Hints:
Blueprint: H1 2-9, H2 15-21, H3 24-31, H4 38-45, H5 53-68, E1 71-79, H6 106-117, E2 123-127, H7 137-147, E3 153-157, H8 163-171, E4 176-178, H9 186-192, H10 201-205, H11 207-214, E5 218-222, H12 230-247, E6 252-256, H13 275-288, E7 293-296, H14 302-308, E8 315-317, H15 345-354, E9 358-360, H16 367-372
Parallel strand pairs: 1-2, 1-8, 1-9, 2-3, 3-4, 4-5, 5-6, 6-7, 7-8
Helix pairs in contact: 1-12, 3-4, 4-12, 4-13, 5-13, 6-7, 8-11, 12-13
Amino acid sequence: MKALEALLRWEGFDIEAFFEAVAPADVTRVLQKNILDERDFLVLLSPCGQAFLEPMARRAKALTLRHFGRVVQLYQPLYLADHCTNNCVYCGFRRTASMPRTRLTIEEIRHNARRMSETGIRHVLLLTGEAPAITPLSYLKEAVLAVRAYFSSISLEMHPMREDDYRELVAVGADGLTIYQETYDRNRYAEVHLSGRKRDFNWRLETPSRGCRSGFRAVNVGALYGLHEPRVDCFRAGLHARGLQLAHPEVEISLSFPRIHRAEPGLTGFSPVSDTTLVQLIVATRLFLPRAGIALSTREPARLRDQMMGIGVTRLSAGSSTEVGGYASSRAAQGQFVIEDTRSVDEVVEAIRGHGFDPVFKDWQRMDEQLQK
């Protein structure tokens, strides 16, 4: 529970009123500090703070270079299945969506992994919808074992699990966990999650802590920006990440910044997030959490992703597909969301180098790989 204490302390706090009281002098004061507290983070996230985006970005760039160097880590998502028992109004995989559903066979998983590895990618993120009866633990373990020969790092993004289940997945080779709270506002969370196990706000909120205790070396959290007021969700995501860092210093904690570009039919109360606001969220988070990894997926356009290299972002997906088996499958499948950056892995690598950074395909090696050498 230690990782959640800060979140719980701030649950009744009127963040909107705090934002209204922030003055330019407050932002200037915060930018002169080396270590930021929670209120400092709020000051940088405020609408007033947006006028200071340039000095914030300069400081964010210096911190990123100090802690991560001139490198950008690359990864690729592999969707294993799109079955889902939840009815989340913002998601293309929601239970009520009229679409053909599919689940890859283990051989199809191997085929996709082989094709992906030919691009040089060595970090993979395995994803499914949330349908444990269709993608049970036994299937997920087989999937991890099937891709081990092709990837050095295997992360998971799927339904929240018990600690013991996560331990079994770690035992067969998974080393990373991604789990988004979607929105940290309880009332808004209930409005956009209409049915399914995902309606349980607390069960999902506690999942990253279970993952840390289970032996994952890396845990990634975040919100889906656009569901709720983005500055508020970013503040709470930052608190969540810092709490995890303090409670589990042995685990690499990172954040992602997915943004809704096109609201699904039925999504009301959508809060569009401009490019400028998204940049503010990222650089403010970097100043608050200097050691946290920050990922920006192909949801975002190439121009913005290139701009954020080294300013705060340390991880980029490349050559991505959000369709089940999208790298080597003849099945017709619907993607979970529309990809904005459609560049190949080679094109992203070229862009990284063109901006003076080094692409990193592999920065982790499992013990079994080391023993083979």
